């Protein structure tokens, strides 16, 4: 996949949230901004347009001129923060709780595979989402300059004035990837969805990995099987203790992370089953 940079727009007044600090609102225990930064962790560099705050990974900060000038002015500030030779940039809003790395790869992949100037995600209703999109930087700079020359200022201008001039491809993906949080009802919907039975473990594991600053593919099924065998074959408290020891052993072993975890888990599963096999067997 082509190298890319990222711009995240994290300003605005959040009027529909009563002026709350929207990028800092937590969904699944993580700030909305941090969730977006985690999804775009593959970026070579990231410029965040908004007020400074602690973040899950290092970023560069800037502000739009004038303050509160709207998304196009904010995008311009972000583009100005990129290196002169930047080629591809991922542009995101800071309120996308379900954006994932697969969607990011898909957007960047469109520009890899075509000569398009932009790849815009579409939402569930088929509308273009210019703040969940990948752009070639030079056409972006070109159109921003033309709009400034035409209107005198970018303040208050809608993003569609820019995107309608670009050779763009519309990209369909998981409809929740473009779900943004504009209201407290949206926040409640997002918080409820991550606790749904089918996704809660993946959400929790991702949150823990981000909190601990680790990159590791976790075989959830393998570890749950291990916890089950330890709980049933030994004792319930053995389940969390065994999975902790497996993680510790994998860390001590070094090498490839997922393989080390899998090997340690296999050994522990075998031990738990041998332990269980002895249940009811006479010592003599």
Structure in words:
By secondary structure, the chain is of the alpha/beta class. The protein contains ten helices and nine strands. The strands form two sheets. Strands 5-4-1-6-8-7-9 form a seven-stranded mixed β-sheet, sandwiched between helices. A two-stranded antiparallel ribbon has the order 2-3. The N and C termini lie far apart (63 Å). The mean pLDDT is 89.
Assembly state (oligomeric): single chain
Strand order of the largest sheet: 5-4-1-6-8-7-9
The averaged pLDDT comes out at 89
Note the main sheet: 7 strands, mixed
* Percent in strands: 5-15%
Q: What letter string, H or E per element, gives the SSE order?
A: EEEHEEHEHEEHHEHHHHH
Distance between the termini: 63 Å
What's the short story on this structure?
This protein is α/β, with parallel strands linked by helices and 284 residues long.
Descriptive labels:
284 residues, alpha/beta, seven-stranded mixed beta sheet, two-stranded antiparallel sheet, 10 helices, 9 strands
Any chance you could write out the topology, listing elements then pairs?
Elements: E1 5-9, E2 26-27, E3 30-31, H1 32-39, E4 46-49, E5 60-62, H2 71-80, E6 88-93, H3 101-113, E7 118-122, E8 128-136, H4 137-151, H5 160-163, E9 168-171, H6 184-193, H7 200-212, H8 220-233, H9 238-253, H10 257-277
Helix pairs in contact: 8-9, 8-10, 9-10
């Amino acid at each position: 996949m082509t190298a890319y940079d990222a711009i995240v727009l994290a300003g605005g007044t959040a009027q529909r949230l009563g002026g709350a600090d929207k990028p800092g609102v937590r969904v699944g225990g993580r700030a909305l901004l941090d969730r977006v930064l985690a999804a775009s962790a593959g970026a070579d560099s990231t410029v965040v347009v908004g007020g400074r705050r602690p973040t899950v990974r290092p970023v560069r900060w800037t502000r739009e001129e004038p303050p509160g000038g709207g998304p196009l002015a904010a995008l311009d500030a972000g583009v100005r923060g990129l290196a002169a030779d930047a080629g591809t940039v991922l542009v995101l809003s800071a309120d996308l709780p379900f954006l994932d790395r697969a969607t990011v790869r898909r957007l960047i992949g469109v520009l890899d595979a075509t000569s398009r100037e932009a790849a815009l995600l579409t939402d569930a209703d088929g509308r273009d989402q210019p703040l969940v999109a990948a752009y070639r930087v030079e056409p972006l700079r070109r159109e921003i300059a033309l709009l400034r020359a035409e209107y005198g200022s970018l303040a208050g201008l809608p993003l569609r004035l820019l995107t309608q001039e670009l050779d763009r491809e519309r990209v369909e993906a998981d409809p929740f990837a473009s779900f943004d949080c504009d209201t407290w009802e949206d926040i409640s919907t997002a918080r409820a969805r991550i606790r749904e039975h089918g996704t809660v473990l993946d959400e929790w594991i991702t949150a823990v990995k981000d909190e601990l600053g680790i990159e590791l593919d976790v075989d959830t099924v393998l570890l749950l099987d291990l916890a089950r065998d330890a709980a049933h074959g030994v004792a319930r408290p053995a389940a969390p203790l065994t999975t902790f020891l497996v993680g510790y052993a994998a860390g001590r072993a070094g090498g490839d992370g997922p393989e080390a975890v899998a090997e340690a888990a296999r050994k522990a599963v075998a031990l738990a089953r041998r332990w269980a096999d002895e249940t009811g067997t006479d010592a003599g």
